[in-house]
Hints:
The chain has 240 residues and is of the alpha+beta class.
Amino acid sequence: MEIIRLDSTDSTNNWASAHEHELPPIALVCCHEQTAGRGQRGNVWESQPGKNITASLIFHPQEFPADQQFHISETVALAIVDFLKSYGVNAQIKWPNDIYVGDKKICGILVEHVVSGRNITRSIAGFGININQTRFLSDAPNPVSLTQITGKDHDLDAAIHCIASILEKRLQSLNDKNSLHQEFLNSLWRKDGAYYNFFDRKNNEQINASIQTVEPSGLLHLQTRNGETRTYSFKEVEYL
């Protein structure tokens, strides 16, 4: 996998999209400073220049059905879990695709696709992994970095090469969708049978529920304390 290094850009997803035809079939676009990193639901991703991995994976799936796009999100999330494990850190995936260590967020992911007919023709998976940052100034409630967890700084260049290698290996197994999805379920944050508070945006109410499963399509199934099963798409439910 070719690694493209930028000094500064507004968003690596934006840059990868704008330069798509100049890039090899698979590339990892990284930048020293990202001035307007984007997260889910229009949020801004805070990252101190030169301290973290801010990057976008761009590739062109071959005959990959658009209705199976959640498997690409699973692949990238699991690659980041693998990456953190290589540093001795046990991470989990908060549905749909944030990466948590305990109850703190170490990575956010934003996946964007181009679809032609029934197939995905290009995917860009942007992610920010907190590596050496120790102070967070935004109003994000629970950020954490690798250096805060391990108590030491880490070589950023080595970390970039490490995640690139892991992503490349993960992409090679993307077509084994059943195993991929089961591994995603096994890595799911708070899928432990306990009940947690959620805000149901569809019904505008707070509920107490446990995670039952996530469908291969990405739909989340929760079970309330009275035994009712509720199903949610992205943005329809919020962890409290």
